[in-house]
Amino acid sequence: MPDEEAHIDAAIPSGEGPGMGLLGARTRHLLALEFGNKAQFDDAGLEWRRLFSELLGTFFLVLAAAGGGMMGHAFPGVISHQAAVVAPALTVMAIILFMGAVSGAHLNPAVSLAFALRGDFPWKRVPGYIIIQLIGATLACLFLRWVFGNVYHLGATLPGPGYKNWQALLMEIVLTVLLVSVILGTASAAQNVGAIAALGVGGYIALAGLWAAPVSGVSMNPARSFGPALASGYWASYWVYLVGPIAGMLIAVGFAYVLRGRGGDVISRAAGSGVLDEGALTAKAKLSQDIDQGKVVPPGVAGTGPQRTGQ
């Protein structure tokens, strides 16, 4: 059935995963929705869509994070500490699932910088992502101020009662190290996509908030702290939430290099799969290249879709 095969091949977007031609059109569509399309993610003509995605995602993240903090102090008997810290975690999970394939759902300047330092994200796109993340965070806090007024400095992240700036700084560094490590370990090609990334990142944010929020507020995100500071005009201790996440990000990138090698190439992808022996690493890198070039069908893909004529 050559005509049918040609129709199937024509339906495969360029840049889609290797071996996708053996899958049905519906399956390919579902995979693209969950894991994205690398060619579209790299297409400069779609940058406006990615920036809008980051704007929207960061807006909702900060709306939940700063709003939860505000409501927790305004209604202490109604909004519990647990609810206030779990709300942004669940929001991040939802954002990754519904639009991670569009922009990568970075939502955090430290994450964009980490991907760029790993060689998985072009540096020319970093300024746009950071600026739009800061704008999204600020818009969220302006919305909160318009609705509720300047309650609790619009949910600003501050050291907890009895804790000093240096203690909050150390906590932010350590927390960000693991956050960025989780993101780099579960992301694919600078994109937070799929259920694994959503559960890993969202779950870690919730756990970090549950035990560490009383010390530093658990920002781990310069944009999340920037929005309330700018909208409320209260900049006390903001430097903690700029220096801490950036320092933690740099440490996490160093850990990623030790664990998985350099980013941005097939060797890194092979090391990321847990193959650290040099000979096995080379063999896996060659296999990855052959798959990318369509010479080899990935294990588990063959036989799942329509068979070629004569097979």
Key words describing this protein structure:
2 domains, disordered N terminus, Glycerol uptake facilitator protein, single chain, 14 helices, mainly alpha, 311 residues
Topology:
Elements: H1 2-10, H2 25-35, H3 38-42, H4 47-74, H5 81-103, H6 109-117, H7 126-148, H8 152-155, H9 165-186, H10 194-216, H11 222-232, H12 240-260, H13 266-272, H14 278-292
Account of the protein in words:
42% of the residues are buried. It contains 14 helices and no strands. The protein is globular, with a radius of gyration of 21 Å. α4 runs antiparallel to α5 (81-103) and α9 (165-186) runs parallel beside α12. It has two domains: 38-260, Up-down Bundle (Glycerol uptake facilitator protein), CATH 1.20.1080.10; 265-296. By secondary structure, it is mainly alpha-helical.
Summarize, please.
The protein has 14 helices and no strands.
